[in-house]
Amino acid sequence: MEKGRIIIVEDEESILMMLTEFLRGNDYLVDPFLEGKDALSALKANNYHVLITDLTMPKVDGLQLINYIQKEYIDTIGIVMTGYGSLETAISAMRLGAFDYVLKPFKFEDILLTIDSAMNYYKMLKNETIPKGLMSKSNLLKRFSQSKLLLENTILRSSLKDKYKFENILGISFGMQKIFELIEKVTDTNATVLITGESGVGKELVAKAIHYNSSRRENPLIVVNCGAIPENLLESELFGFEKGAFTGAVSTRLGKFEIANKGTIFLDEIGDMSLNLQVKILRVLQERAFERIGGAKTIKVDIRVLAATNRVLEHLVKEGAFREDLYYRLNVVPIHIPPLRERRQDIPLLLSSFLEESNRLNDADVKGFSEEAMDIMMNYDYPGNVRELKNIVERNVILKRNGLIEVEDLPEKLWKARDNHQHLDIQKGYETLVTEFEKSIIAKALQETKGVKSKAANILNLNRTTLIEKMKRLGMD
Ligand SMILES: Nc1ncnc2c1ncn2[C@@H]1O[C@H](COP(=O)(O)OP(=O)(O)OP(=O)(O)O)[C@@H](O)[C@H]1O
Ligand SMILES: [Mg+2]
User: Fold this and answer.
1) pTM of the predicted model, to two decimals?
2) What value does the mean pLDDT take over residues 191-217?
3) Cα–Cα distance between 176 and 387 in angstroms, integer?
4) Measured between alpha carbons, how far is 250 from 129 in angstroms, rounded to an integer?
């Protein structure tokens, strides 16, 4: 039986044909198109579960197709294919409502994974008992916000459960699925893993998942925060010391490397470690051996090393703040966790799970988010990532205790972010938007100075003549 019906639009014929064959071989019904405009007619005539489209194509491009399926209340789920060069456009496509993007060149297996998860998502949305075709996806998404939120996500989670063994790490996005796969691949090896990503994306959670799913799980996981401890203290924390090694060393103490023997050591915030200590760590990684401070005996340990940082180590290496040799030693298996704003599909699942948990812990009964509040939560950029989202939910559960979380309940910075985006109709194109923005800046300055150009120029830190030239060019008089 077919798993679903897919429409593919790709102007490179060889890719189109190969992908079509591959997906047909994986039980999908596939309609391939070389041109956007033909795809548009097909979309109008048929029902598709999934649209996969290239972004840059002559005439009707991928963004237009995504926009079309979004606007016309068709239930089709959009996935875009793009090269590194147009990642920005891919993100615009996500904002328009695309489910996910895949970066070219991709492995066919990867795109299959994305399609399978899009199909799961589709089925989940269809579990709604609403007349077919009457509601847009965005409305359905908003339905998450109502009290059914919890129920729907329970269904979702149970259907995905056996696929992901790491139950405390939530995520249905393609980005997170890749991470689950990676975790699975590395758990039972002894490979050093470097986990990177912005603050609050879940690096520590991933480190724990690796340890607790590995054969070392019965032995300790020792976490060392290399950023928080001053250098000399960190050294004795890691390596331990012999009695009398320095004033105050009244007895021998074991370091974390020794305590972690047979288990795992997690070096968190490794990017903040001093160059001096980096050399010493390098030796432990190479030889699994070290001496306690003030000690002569070499101690051998059997440890697995995991490390994490929210800094970009490549940059630190270039700046000379991080040793290149250590970087290569750590970066055996890199796991990069994308920021939450690049995997918005995970937001509903995280919200419902944190809501459930906060309700339970606080003995509260908050049902969900109002439509408008949900809209804001879906579109906010979360500089603090999952941690920030979790804090917003917790704070609201504690303050509200029951009912729905409304827009007014959300932190002010969330509505501000929305108001900033609201007037941005990206369909207008870059040039027009920039021109509009320039006009609004000048108009505001003139308003504040009651039309006095020299004063306005002053505020804006422009020459008066430059301001007048700009106004002429922008047709402002
Ligand atoms: N995918 C996820 N599913 C569920 N909870 C998550 C997920 N990602 C992060 N969290 C939660 O978000 C919070 C922050 O995660 P964690 O401490 O692992 O982030 P981090 O990347 O180590 O952050 P930092 O760089 O600030 O140390 C934790 O409460 C964690 O449980
Ligand atoms: Mg952390």
Assistant:
1) 0.61
2) 93
3) 16
4) 71
Which residue type, as a one-letter code, is found at position 166? F
* Fold: same for 4-133 and 174-336: yes
* Range 239-247 contact pairs with CB under 8 angstroms and sequence separation of 24 or more: 239/280, 239/290, 239/291, 239/292, 239/293, 240/292, 240/293, 241/292, 241/293, 241/294, 241/295, 242/292, 242/293, 242/294, 242/295, 244/294, 245/292, 245/293, 245/294, 245/295, 246/293, 246/294
Nearest ligand 1 atom to alpha carbon 390: 12
The residues pairing with 6 across neighbouring beta strands, listed in sequence order, are 30, 50
CATH number for 174-336 (one of 3.40.50.150, 3.40.50.300, 3.30.160.270, 3.40.50.720): it is 3.40.50.300
Q: What whole-number distance in Å separates Cα of residue 156 and Cα of residue 148?
A: 12
**CA 226–ligand 2 middle distance (angstroms):** 11
> What mean pLDDT, rounded, does the chain reach?
84
Which token pair is 311?
């800094």
- The half-sphere exposure of 458 on its side-chain side, counting CA atoms within 13 A, is 7
CA separation for the pair 134, 74 (Å, rounded): 9
CA–CA separation, 265 and 207 (whole Å) = 10
Could you say which ligand is closest to the alpha carbon of residue 391?
A: 1
Q: What is the pLDDT of residues 95-112, one digit of tens each?
A: 677 777 787 878 888 888
CATH domain 341-422 topology: Helicase, Ruva Protein; domain 3 (1.10.8)
Atom of ligand 1 nearest to the CA of 353: 4
Nearest ligand 1 atom, CA 337? 21
Q: Which residues line ligand 1 (CB under 6 A)?
A: 169-171, 197, 199-205, 310, 386-387, 390
Q: Does domain 4-133 have CATH number 3.40.50.620?
A: no
pLDDT band at 296 (very low <50, low <70, confident <90, very high): very high
Find the 200 Cα to ligand 2 centroid distance in Å. 7
Looking at residue 88, what is its pLDDT? 66
For 197, the token pair is 């990503």
Pocket test of ligand 1: the residue of 386, 394, 395 to mutate, having most ligand atoms within 8 Å of its CB, is: 386
Rounded Cα gap, residues 98 and 101, in angstroms? 8
**In the CATH hierarchy, which top-level class contains the domain 426-473?**
mainly alpha
CB atoms within 10 A of CB 424: 12
Domain ranges of the chain: 4-133, 174-336, 341-422, 426-473
Q: Which helix or strand (DSSP H or E) is residue 402 part of?
A: strand 402-405
